[in-house]
Amino acid sequence: MNKNLVEKFNSIIGEKGKVLTNEEDLACYSYDAYAETPVMPEIVVKPTDYEQIQQVIKLCNEENIPIVTRGAGSNLSGGTIPKSGGCVLLTTGFNKILEINENDLYAVVQSGVVTATLAKAVEAKGLFYPPDPGSMNISTIGGNVAENAGGLRGLKYGVTKDYVMGVNFFDPEGNSVKGGGKTVKLVTGFNLQGLMVSSEGLLGVMTDITLKLIPKPKTSKSMIVFFDDVITACEMVSAIISSKIVPTTLEFLDNFTIRTVEDATKIGLPTDAGALLLIEVDGYEGQVEEEFSKIFELANKMNGRLKVANNIEEKNKIWEARRKALSSLARLKPTLILEDATVPRSKIPSMMRAIQEITKKYNLTIGTFGHAGDGNLHPTILTDRRDKNEMEIVEKAIDEIFDAALNLDGTLSGEHGVGTAKAKYLEKEVGKGTILYMKKLKKGIDPKGILNPHKMGI
């Protein structure tokens, strides 16, 4: 980037922000949590106020410089991998909780607020913000909205889209746009806040977000159920849901993942279990006890071995098993490819059988865990990108995993997004007409294509 342009960015950002152009600094923003070849941006800027964001966007639009908006970079789809020669716009400096309204049950936060920070702040006031992606200790609310992040509590409480009431953002020309607001009902104009959900940075740069809050549940009970085989565990998921029980969380780990987590954490998981379910129910005390009793009966009928957490320490230990699944698997091989094929809940046993068959067919190392209660499985392939022959096999296996999910009326991605990772598969799920519609929408809003170009294949 020529010195004149760099000076223009410096004059916009000023002394309080940051403008990075040296290679060592740029390298830090050349990749995200998705395992892909890094791409170096030409410049990284960290604004300190909304006017600076607006001016950066206007300058990039005038100079045809691609912009990638980046929070923590924790996404798993290559959504924040920059375009070569482009600008990375950091939102992490916008980390203020602007309002927590206890009367009307909403919060207004800047896009760079870390998810766990918001969750703790509202909990201190007896309120609850349920979305809890696995990366919640580092991921930002803006990124959660852009990727429609899910989490362990999605079964009962839904995902990020279910809590977005309003979004303020800048369009590709730097115009300020307001979508939604603070009222429960609002139908003035297009559902622009909804448009920002799952937009992956292609349609605007978010500055602040209004989120719905709910009362904190009175009590909860956590348990773990061990099974001798994977399919019975999957059938237990269907049995729970068909019994009209909606747990807060209903998580699944297969034997390979159980053994890997136990080896890494030594928390006392039985490594001979074929699979396990991590279950939590919450609400009023009577409701919790009733739902627990029903789950206990189902577990006995299906030969499951149930263990209840009797205190907060035991509860934390149970959930450590799930939250450490990904990091434990990542220790085994240089490359970890985490998929999130999702199917209707009743078809989880069929999807798990398909994953088992694909694993055997290609002789791959795959650990599967995930949010079984909402049909979201994470078959995690352990490999090495440097081995070209093995990567060809991995690609074939991924193709078949996605085909299996689609054949079961599922989706390619339940919560990780499309980005660069799944762009080539998108048409297979949504069809040519949908891709064309998305391209027209993108072209109309961003005719120069400067916002996060080449993501989603559009």
C-alpha geometry:
globular
Text of the CATH class of the largest domain: Alpha Beta
Low-confidence stretches: none
How many domains? The number is: 3
Total beta strands:
18
Largest sheet: 7 strands, antiparallel
Spatial extent as radius of gyration = 23 Å
> Span from first to last CA?
26 Å
CATH domain fold name of the largest domain? Vanillyl-alcohol Oxidase, Chain A, domain 3
**Backbone structural class:** alpha+beta
The average pLDDT score comes to 95
Helix share, percent: 25-40%
CATH architecture of the largest domain: 3-Layer(aba) Sandwich
CATH superfamily of the largest domain: FAD-linked oxidases, C-terminal domain
Strand content: 15-25%
- By DSSP (H or I, 4+ residues per run), the number of helices equals 16
Task: Explain the overall architecture.
This protein is of the alpha+beta class and 458 residues long. It has three domains: 3-90, Uridine Diphospho-n-acetylenolpyruvylglucosamine Reductase, domain 2 (2-Layer Sandwich), CATH 3.30.43.10; 97-215, Uridine Diphospho-n-acetylenolpyruvylglucosamine Reductase, domain 3, CATH 3.30.465.10; 217-421, 3-Layer(aba) Sandwich (Vanillyl-alcohol Oxidase, Chain A, domain 3). Helices cover 37% and strands 21% of the residues. The strands form four sheets. A seven-stranded antiparallel β-sheet has the order 15-12-14-13-17-18-16, with helices on both faces. It has a five-stranded antiparallel β-sheet with strand order 5-6-10-8-9. The chain starts with a helix and ends in a 13-residue tail after the last helix. The mean pLDDT is 95.
